Amino acid sequence: MKYFSTRGRDERLSFEETVLTGLAPDGGLYIPEHIPALPENWKSEWRSYSFVDLSVAVLSLYISPDEISQAELRQLVEKSYSTFRHPDVTPLKKLDDKTYVLELFHGPTFAFKDVALQLLGNLFEFFLLRRNATKSEGEAQERLTVVGATSGDTGSAAIYGLRGKANVSIFILHPKGRVSPIQEAQMTTVTDANVHNVAVKGTFDDCQDIVKSLFADKEFNATHRLAAVNSINWARILAQTVYYFLSYFHLQSQLPEGTNIELIQYVVPTGNFGDILAGYYAKRMGLPVSKLVVATNENDILARFWKSGKYEKVDSSATGPGPTAVANGASDGKQAAASSGVKETLSPAMDIVVSSNFERLLWYLAFENATGAQGEKQKEAGRAVNGWMSSMKADGRVELPIPVLESARKDFVAERISDDETLATIKSFFESDVPYIADPHTAVALAASRIVAKTNSPNTYQVVLSTAHPAKFSEAVSRALAGSPQFNFDRDVLPKEFRGLLDMEKRVIDVERPDVELVKGVIESLVGHQAGEIKKSGSV
Ligand SMILES: *Cc1c(COP(=O)(O)O)cnc(C)c1O
Predict the structure, then answer these.
(1) pTM, to two decimals
(2) What's the 3-state SS for 434-447?
(3) Ligand 1 pocket check: which of 105, 106, 110, 112 to mutate, most ligand atoms within 8 Å of Cβ?
């Protein structure tokens, strides 16, 4: 299997090159040259497979055996998911006859990004060790320096994915004092020698700007071989396809023998469109999914696209004087972060302006609506995506052709959920017959599932993806359940792993100003150091 860019470049990459490259040089995202079909007998053959078995089965359809053998793949996958606390890795729980939750938060950092990042870290290490094994003595070893910024909710998943990995260093910048104490502790209590938490005196946007400048600095980038582990990395999407298959089988095993589950809907709390895109691949491979439901918070660019066909940063249909109508969030008066246009919501991991992985879906929609032979259609799709993305870059908006919107509506529906609805949903599921405590991201999906269910046929099953443990977003959960006398956070939510976390040993490097040169200095002084050489905490 080879991979190419969504923007039409001719070049074809191996899986290894795709994973190590991340973003294509033309700005596009890598996609497989075709979507593989499932083996004829997959329903019977895969039925009793574990998460690991299914990972090997699904991933090997996308990775040539001469790149990673089945035995090596199994080792990588086993290692990656041995860090999960639940024997099913991603268990499926019943809420009512038609609604199930697929819990994706049983990994080391209690959020769904672990599923992909645990594997990505092991893939990086595997490729680097293999490359370095062929180097002669004295030849420079290949290394990667992973750099990223976090507002708190996702940095720890990258850190846990890369901790202790050979030939990889990771630097995660966070705004000092602006991250919740639990989230900060989740990151800074990882004291492996290759993990560097950088606390920048400034905002999250400052941290992001610094990371962008580092990647833009050609010389620095080449010297340190900077890498990102953001959600556009193909390996992340691929890893996430597995739980769609697993949950299909788990649903089947929980239903009476012989139940036909041709109508299964996946409801996915969506930000950068990576999680739900994995479901799209599963569907295209042959998993019998009727619809994928895109659930967004008030950062609703995707929900607006499925309503209008317009993909635009700012809602042009909003009444009022242009951009400020959206920025001020007419209904609830919440302020947008002035610089970026992102609205801060109770589900921060979905606070986005544009959804990076949506570009991959656009390519498939363009392909479907192109004409000619396979190769011609691929070229045409690349040209179309390239044009749309240029409009996005120049104008912040693009209006997609009607047939493209119609294609998108065949597989997806989308709903936008406000913060108020999110809080009400947490409360209502806690107070239902089978009490369930949802984190705010999961609650966005649960709320969307209820809306969509109103028009579902009676034999439709809904699987709602639960992307974070409620303890990770304790403020929102406690706020939603403040009026429920039977609710006790410490007893009902707090996992034992979080107890005492705040008192554990920490390692963090303080940077006194949001200054890219200071951060460069930190990276230069620490890359490649071995355990023992690094003092507990430093300051720049
Ligand atoms: C990242 C994240 C999401 C959104 O997933 P995308 O793949 O970006 O759509 C949802 N919930 C949580 C808790 C997340 O961390």
Answers:
(1) 0.93
(2) CCCCCCHHHHHHHH
(3) 112
Domain residue extents for the chain: 235-492
Burial category of 323 from C-beta neighbours within 10 Å (exposed 0-12, middle 13-18, buried 19 and up): middle
> What separation in Å is there between the alpha carbon of 219 and the centre of ligand 1?
33
**Whole-number Cα distances in Å, 136 to 131, 132, 143, 165:** 11, 9, 15, 22
Question: How is the chain split among helix, strand and coil, in percent rounded to 5?
Answer: 45, 15, 40
> Among residues 2, 113, 427, 506, which one is catalytic?
113
Handedness of CA 225, 228, 232, 234 (dihedral sign): positive
Distance of CA 366 to the CA centre of its chain: 24
Tokens of 404: 């493209």
Q: How would you write 148-163 as a 3-class SS string?
A: EECCCCCHHHHHHHHC
Q: Which atom belonging to ligand 1 lies closest to the Cα atom of 154?
A: 15
Segment-wise mean pLDDT, segments of 10 residues, the chain, 540 residues? 96 96 92 97 96 98 97 98 98 96 98 97 97 91 93 92 96 94 94 96 93 92 89 96 98 88 92 97 97 97 97 83 42 43 93 95 98 95 97 96 98 98 97 94 98 94 97 95 91 93 94 96 81 47
Domain 235-492 has CATH 3.30.1330.60: no
Nearest CA, atom 15, ligand 1? 349
